[in-house]
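Ticket reopened. Same input as before:
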Amino acid sequence: MTENAVEVNNLSVKFKDHLALSGLSLQVPQNSFVAIVGPNGAGKSTFLKVLLGLVQPTNGIVTVLNKKPQEVDPTLIGYVPQFKTMDRSFPALSIELVYTGLSQRWPWRLSKIEKRQVLTALDQVGATHLARRQIGRLSGGELQRVCLARSIVRQPKLLMLDEPATGIDVIGEEDMYRMLETYQKQSGASLLMITHDWHAATHHADYVLLLNRKQVSFGPPGEALSEDNLRKAYGHIGHEHTLKFLVNSNG
Amino acid sequence: MVEILTLPFMQRALIAGVLVGFLASYYGVFVVQRGLSFLGSGLAHAAFGGIALGLLLNSEPLWIAVPFTIIVAIGIFWVRDRTELGSDTAIGIFFAVSMALGIVFLFLKREYTSDAFTYLFGSILAVTATDIKITGLVVLITLFTTPLWRRWAYASFDRELAETDHLSVKQDDYLLSILIAVTVVVAIKVVGIVLIAAFLVIPAATSRLLSHTFRRMTIISIIIGIFSALIGLWLSYYLDVPSGANIILFQAVLFFLSMLFKSIKIK
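Engineering reply: fixed in the latest deploy. New output:
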């Protein structure tokens, strides 16, 4: 029997009188790459926070790696938050930030073994040269690479990324997807990635979850991102960019 | 110079200065990095309420001020966590209420209390053996809890990341705020209520200017805290000026020198 990395059954989340998510049901097979797509305020980040155990479901059952989110060993989960939410005025070097992924604490001093592990993770994302740089002096793309290194240093079974391509140029973005795919192949991990980029979702993900507070669709990109589904999620899709995307992805 | 070390009241003041300098500058790095500089003022005024109650009840003011300030510290974070109000608003409310209570307690005493002046501005003559024992106990607790530095530092950098790693961030926040509250109370005799907030902020802010890691910031802040307390107390003895003012003015000089050093280095 193949175990699922994530199982969600009839999930709803309500904040006071605001219904953030309702009726989500899906299963994410292990070693799969899922893109979470939807308009602003669709509940994408809330969904990731439920899986991380930061937000309690109002209704429904959620299991992550066969456990309740709060009971999962945090070292099995890698998380890349939106870098714009990070405090870049904090006095820290990149190597220290990556270390938090290893030990779930801020470092006082790194041992030789820990330093080697951290540098290996930075090397995997092509950021070894940033190790001794202050995080406040990193560009958006550089900080994103360091955050990726932080998430993979613990060799997670499930990697969750909240808009990881923000602030990265086109070449850097392709490098990042290649790195994620390589990591996925090598580790057998599952990936859940929030993105606004339908192109990336179509070309890199095995499945797409299309959200707009409720589950519009979940399935292979070609099915999930159909014109009908996109209309349901976004209201209208008359924009030139959208039409170009649909023509390209549907041949 | 050496003669002041032979005077019992100066010995007590210097020991208290070293202990308080360590405590305020150690916790100050979290206060500064979490943007809670106003917390020091809020807790100092809460301590004023507690001290006034102690004076009214004719008991040792510190014994009343410690629990009083801890309750206020917990109240501030409780209001913040259970409402949509920010920390600064919660601090502002408790700050005013504690101050008002302090004024009422002093008024109810209906007699002149010279002690109140000592608590407001700090005095090297006011430090007793009991103060040193209490402060020493707080230092011991702080040393005992130093493993928490790594958790507090992580949550100071990013609360959400710390929570995803299943750290009990809220409980850690409460413990940190309690220890800061106790530090504020035990520092009052040396620095005074009016200036205690600066004692929490200036050493940490100065060391932030000179540090590129949080570890280094913590170490430099402690060195500045202890050094400035000793120099301030020494000046207080020779100039006969309240100790708190001397300490803070000396810390301010170090802060502006650090700014100057940094701007020259950048050029």
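Chain B has a mean pLDDT of 89. DSSP finds twelve helices and no strands in chain B. Please confirm and we'll close it.
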